[in-house]
Amino acid sequence: MPRTALRVRRWAAIAVLGGLLAGCGTGSSDTGSEAVEPAAGPRTSTEVRPIEAATRITDAKGVTVSLKKPPQKIVCLVALCDDILVELGLTPAATNSAVLAHPEFLGKEKAAKVPVVPGGFLSPEVEAILSHRPDLVIGLADTHGKLAPALKGATTFWPVQPGSWQDSVGYLRDLAALTGRTEEGEKAEKTFRARLAEAEGARSDKTSLIIFGSDENFGVATPETDVAAGLFPKISHYPWKSRGIDGSYSLEEILARDVDVLFVETLSFGAPDGKLSDKLAKNPLWSRIPAVKNGKVIEVDSEVWAKGRGTRSLGLVLDEATAALR
Question: pLDDT at position 244, please?
Answer without folding.
Answer: 84
